[in-house]
Automatic annotation (TrEMBL):
Residues 14-32, 244-254 have a biased composition (Low complexity). Pfam families: DUF3710 (PF12502). Residues 1-82, 235-254 are annotated as: Disordered. This is DUF3710 domain-containing protein. It comes from Subtercola lobariae.
Amino acid sequence: MSKRSERKNEKAALEAAAAADTAADDSSTGDAESNDELVVRGRAGSPAVNESDGADAAPDAKSAPENRAADGPFDADEANPARPYVDLGGIKILPREGLQLRLEVEEGTQRVVAVGLDFAGSTLQVQAFAAPRSTGLWHDIRGQIKEQISAQGGSLVERDGVFGPELVAEVPAAGLDGKPVARLARFVGVDGPRWFLRGVIAGDAMSSEDSQAAVEELFRSVVVVRGQSPMPPRDLIPLSIPKTTAGPAATTAI
């Protein structure tokens, strides 16, 4: 398969996940929400799919790795100020060899709504949202995504991953020839201090342990800049275009 075809497959997977996620948001608050993650395999020595304890968590409980503040994803106050981050406003990305950055815009408003990261033969899309100080969003949003994927004819399981509860799904999408196909999707989320971070993964990380580990480390390195301004929960934390990027649709090596 050509690189162009692979990229189209990854884009289709992301768009299918986005459709399910957007529908979940519309059914609850109507606030800006979008894509999530894609992966269907566990670590070596662990089952590919496990039942998740997250199903029993309170809907407003925070969901994050115990070591999040030390290992990421990071709050702006926790990040190493000496590192040469690419500043995208509400999100900062740590450059590394082979990493390509894309900014995704909303049709009509031309607002930047997501950051796309191409790395290790995979695509990671991230978004950050405002959240309450003492409660989280991921448990509630995860339940909405499950309902919407099921309504679209998709199938999924819930498991515990390196970031906590996550969803592993087969999402209906259109293939390169226009015929219906199923795309694998892994939805993950982390509740931080007054913010919530999500990602969507596609590509080699779906089948390669090395790529999966590389993309998970990339997600851990993301810094969320919530700011002090009041924001309703689930509002997208504003993103901006870095000076090194030609425009919202540009792809830039960082």
